[in-house]
Design brief:
Layout: H1 2-19, H2 23-34, H3 49-65, H4 69-94, H5 100-133, H6 138-158, H7 160-190
Helix pairs in contact: 1-2, 1-4, 1-5, 1-6, 1-7, 2-3, 2-6, 4-5, 5-6, 5-7, 6-7
Length: 195
């Protein structure tokens, strides 16, 4: 059961990294310092004061940067690989009692994959919103992403099994949306243009 709980926490934090890179790491650091989260061996540093201050500063800068309409889309180029790395780190930091090969395989595939999937879906949504509203609507999307990151992070720490179910649901929805977008684009490229 402990392994299942650590999977719920790790994958939940990873999915939250797709919304905001540093919010889940900050939540994990606060939870570790408060005694609600026990980091895996080798990741005890996540509960230290320097890590807490670094994650808090990075979170503040990320939230402020995403509130600037033109900068938020530019940040997606950096945030996408950073979210994958943060997702791997967040999940590996809490995957306890697993052999190293399994731990890192799950962190890379599960944690990094979920973070990348979530980040990709939000980046596409922000791009569509920017095109439809001239960038004005991105402020709303950024706010929803921030709330989503905080909510999923807290849920992962407080109720890991419920978060695991939620994360699976998010993954299915993002996969289907991505499949629809891909099939539409493929369909458009195969349509003959006024012959």
């Amino acid at each position: 059961m402990d392994t299942l709980l650590s999977l719920g926490v790790g994958l939940g934090l990873s999915a939250a990294c797709g919304f905001r890179v540093f919010v889940p790491l900050l939540a994990a650091s606060v939870a570790a310092q408060a005694g609600y989260l026990t980091p895996a061996p080798g990741f005890e540093w996540i509960g230290t004061s320097p890590a807490l201050y670094a994650f808090a500063t990075a979170t503040l800068l990320e939230v402020l940067a995403y509130s600037i309409p033109w900068l938020d889309n530019a940040l997606d180029a950096i945030a996408s690989p950073a979210a994958v790395i943060a997702g791997m780190l967040a999940s590996a930091a809490v995957f306890a009692d697993l052999p190293p090969f399994l731990k890192w395989s799950l962190a890379i595939i599960g944690g990094g994959g979920l973070a990348g999937l979530t980040q990709g879906a939000t980046a596409l949504l922000r791009l569509k919103t920017a095109l439809a509203s001239g960038g004005i609507g991105n402020f709303l999307i950024s706010g929803v992403e921030l709330v989503g990151s905080v909510a999923v992070s807290l849920l992962a720490i407080a109720v890991p099994l419920a978060c695991l179910v939620l994360v699976c649901g998010i993954g299915v929805v993002a996969w289907r949306l991505g499949g629809r977008l891909f099939s539409r684009r493929r369909g458009r490229s195969q349509d003959p243009v006024n012959s």
